[in-house]
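Form 7-S
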Amino acid sequence: MNGSGSFSALVSAAGSLRPQVALVLGSGMGGLAQRLKPIQSIPFVDVPGLPAAAVAGHKGCLTLAKCGGQAVLLFEGRLHYYEGHPWRTLTLPVRTAAFLGARVLVLTNAAGGIRDNLGADSLMAIEDHIDWTRAYCWRTPGPGGLGEARPSPYSPRLLHLLMTAAQETGVDLCVGVYAAVIGPCYETPAEIRALKQCGADAVGMSTAREIEAGASVGMECCAISCITNRAAGLSAGPITHDEVLASARARGEAVADLLEAFLHVLGQSTPN
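Output:
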């Protein structure tokens, strides 16, 4: 079945095809969807508990598709806390993907570069994150916090496969730590200086809670940041959402190349 349909029809199709991978496409990175063969596609509002996506650059569809001979779940866009949604709603796509059978979670996002060598158009595979969306965030475990050490929720195996895919496609991919903030306003220069001291390489308004939700239900997780601009205080002028979208779309083909190659090498590998 092609085109639109109900959630029950998508559940039925997923039950037959058994998609193992779920991908979430961030701001301006919907290009991969154009390369896939859709089997079933529904708007977010047809998924029980999900509202429509409202931010520019987020289509707001859940699509079951084929890529490289394997079935995948594709979330074209995401929801954000700054839109007024509770955290449970924001992580519902991840839990829906797990319900539909996905065991690997791949997230993408647009982010501001903090590390000196992360300029606009860079791509960064995330090895860990700093979660500034929580109260008293400095007390929480993980990089930049005073809490006890915890294992990264990002899979070393998937990170290795991402780097392998980058080498095969000639895509320049670095590795770093992502900082998640609430938004919707961009960070102040003082906040960026503080994040840099905490070990952050890039900053954005998503991903951390989704990754943690995926890891909590046993999914193997990885993520890629498309660096669309230098963070506040490091750029020549003010940051705008239009600039972010334009930069993300400019790198859309490279991100799509990388994800396609990743799905291919993932299909050839087996978990350790």
